[in-house]
Write a structure and sequence with these properties.
- By secondary structure, the protein is of the alpha/beta class.
- It has two domains: 1-59; 67-264, TIM Barrel, CATH 3.20.20.80.
- The protein has eight helices and nine strands.
- It has an eight-stranded mixed beta barrel with strand order 1-2-4-5-6-7-8-9.
- Helix 4 (136-147) packs across helix 5 (171-187).
Length: 266
C-alpha cells in the first residue's frame, strides 16, 4: 500500500526539535529521580543491616557484677603489649593466655604474659587453638611443650571453633583428632576446659564431652539465666586498663566463695 501524502493541515502536527529536547530532558530528570531514590533506599537498608550487626556483635550483654563478681580477660600475641598490673588494678582477676596453635605454632607472647600475670597476682590458664587439619596427638604435644612445667591455676583449655579453620574437613575426622588430643592430655594428668560458641559446642563437643568444664563465647544475656558454663566470654571489644585496643572480657559463673573454693579444692 502506498503512503498517502500529508495534507497541508497535517504539517502543523509534526514535532519540532525543541519539543523533542524537552521530552528527553523530562525523561532524564525522571531517570535521575528514580536512581536517586534507589541509592537512598539501598543506603538505608545497608545502615539498618549495619545497625543490627552492631547491636549483636559489638554491643555487649548486660552482665550483673553482683551475680558475676569475678571478671577476667584472655590474651594472645594479637593483643600486643599488656600491662597486667594495671589490668589487675582495674578489677580483672584471671587471664587465659594463648600458648599454642596446631602442631607447631607457639604464641610469641605467652611466656612474657605468663610472667606478668603471675607478678600481678592474677589466676592463669592457658589455651590452645585446635586446628581441624592437624593430628590430635601432635597438637597435644605442642600444647604441653608450650606451657612447660608452669603452674596454671585454671589449667588447660582447648579452643574449638570454625572461624580460622578449613571448611573441607569431615566432621568425623575433626572429632577423632580432638578425641586423640584430649586423651593424650588426660593421660598426662590434665583435665581440660573447652572453649567454643553455642553452635560449636553442639556440633563438636556436647555428645562426647557433656559435663566437662565449658568456656562459652556468647553475646546474649541468655547465659545469665542458663549457667551450664564455667567461664563466659561476653565481649570481644572490651576496654581494660593497661591493654591497648580491644580485648576479650570474661566472667566466672559462680560467687566469690565458689571462686575461692575452686582453688582450695582443685
Amino acid at each position: 500500500m502506498r503512503n498517502k501524502p500529508l495534507h497541508p493541515r497535517d504539517y502543523n502536527k509534526t514535532v519540532e526539535p525543541q519539543e523533542c529536547e524537552i521530552k528527553i530532558k523530562k525523561r532524564s530528570r525522571n531517570d535521575l529521580l528514580i536512581a536517586g531514590l534507589f541509592v537512598v533506599v539501598t543506603a538505608l537498608l545497608c545502615y539498618a543491616g549495619w545497625w543490627a550487626w552492631h547491636q549483636y556483635m559489638i554491643s555487649p550483654p548486660y552482665v550483673d557484677e553482683e551475680r558475676f563478681p569475678i571478671r577476667g580477660i584472655d590474651l594472645s600475641a594479637h593483643n600486643g603489649y599488656a600491662n597486667l598490673n594495671a589490668a589487675a588494678a582495674d578489677g580483672y582477676e584471671f587471664v587465659f593466655l594463648k600458648a599454642s596453635e596446631g602442631a607447631t605454632h607457639r604464641d610469641a607472647n605467652f611466656v612474657l604474659n605468663y610472667q606478668k600475670a603471675m607478678h600481678a597476682g592474677m589466676k592463669v590458664g592457658a589455651y590452645h587453638f585446635f586446628r581441624f587439619d592437624r593430628d590430635g596427638v601432635e597438637q597435644a604435644v605442642n600444647f604441653l611443650r608450650s606451657v612447660g612445667n608452669r603452674h596454671l591455676d585454671l589449667g588447660l583449655a582447648i579452643d574449638v571453633e570454625e572461624q580460622g579453620n578449613p571448611t573441607n574437613i569431615p566432621l568425623d575426622t575433626i572429632k577423632m583428632r580432638l578425641e586423640m588430643m584430649v586423651e593424650y592430655l588426660n593421660m598426662a594428668g590434665h583435665r581440660v576446659t573447652f572453649y567454643s560458641n553455642r553452635d560449636g559446642w553442639k556440633k563438636y563437643l556436647v555428645d562426647e564431652y557433656n559435663g566437662m568444664p565449658l568456656w562459652i563465647c556468647s553475646f546474649t544475656s541468655e547465659n545469665a539465666r542458663n549457667r551450664d558454663w564455667t567461664f563466659w566470654q561476653y565481649n570481644h571489644r572490651g576496654k581494660v586498663a593497661g591493654i591497648r585496643g580491644e580485648v576479650d572480657l570474661n566472667a566466672f559463673s559462680g560467687s566469690r566463695e565458689d571462686w575461692e573454693n575452686m582453688f582450695e579444692n582443685p
